[in-house]
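Batch manifest, entry 17 of 40.
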Amino acid sequence: MAGALEGIRVVDISTFVLGPVATQMLGDMGADVIKVEAPEGDPTRGIGQMRSPGMGSFFLNLNRNKRSVVLDLKHQEGRASLRSLIDGADVLVHNMRSGAAKRLGIDFESLSVTHPRLVHATALGFGKGGRYFDRPAYDDVIQGLSGVPGLNRRMTGQTGYIPMLLADKLCGVYLYGAVMTALLHRERTGRGQEVQLPMFETMVGFNLLEHMADHVLVPEPDTQAAPIGYGRVFSKVHRPLMTRDGPICLIANTDAQWHRLFELIGKGELRDDDRFKTIGQRMANVVQLYDLVEGALQGRTRTEWLAAFAAADIPAGPANELADIRADEHLADTDFFQVFQHESEGELLMPRNAMHLMSTPSSLRCGPPRLGQHTAEVLNEVDRDGRRMHGDPS
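Output type: structure tokens
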């Protein structure tokens, strides 16, 4: 079956993680993604083990369903070829700072008049209009500014990053959604638009979805009486709970779930305890609550408890290590990990796109491209087919 974005061409000038996450998702959904690279290639090509030069494992995980075109944008010929590619594109994605984009003539203001149907998407560190605009930004900087290390400090006493490229990956997903929204708008109106995805503002908004807590109220409460933050996740008991032989992840939310849990651990009387009758009371007494639960878990093994919780429809699961995920039975059932035969890199194991569209499913059509693998092919297409200018949608 054809993907939902079949016929959509994306010119992707982004590097590292954020932009490539978004464009890989667009490619998974059927878009023709043209990855424009400098002669030295995306820097991630050099990260991790590789079977061929420039095909590091880090790059392989972020760049399937794309075609690679090498253009030297320092020279007029390369810039002219880029403009030809943009002439035939539906979406342009880049993470250049504003001055560099303007010098190349690919900023929104330069393109909007001649390319009124183009969705012009820019990944920014910081939003326009603020004093941080045009500063360089990477994941660590954005995690820090958006309060992530402070979350760790409040819980563990140690300031630290989330051990993943959280801001890059999450903002890439947001950018994908923003581009899709702009494409829907174009479908309805015939007009493209500028899309800006600032990492800082995006991560602050994401972080505060639960951590704004009572401070959503105006005027704000006294910070001593109601410190900003969702209290449960800062508790010492917000962690996997120990059974007789290992940890499990257990969370009950509704009254019915808690009532079944109390019965299952042999403490049915707690359902009538004034400390635990309602969700608000349980939140206020969460430390005592989970201390009681964990104490009861010591009587049985992890396997025994997980089976019991599953039978009682209580949300629980193992505390997996990264290596454990590969052996997960559910992921095997759903064919989540797919073996792809790459023409130069041999067998690659790739997580599939988890979004399921029944009529227009995602697909793994082509592996991550070698540097410049499709330069001649794509530029020949431009020369043969002419330029599909955005003033003429035909």
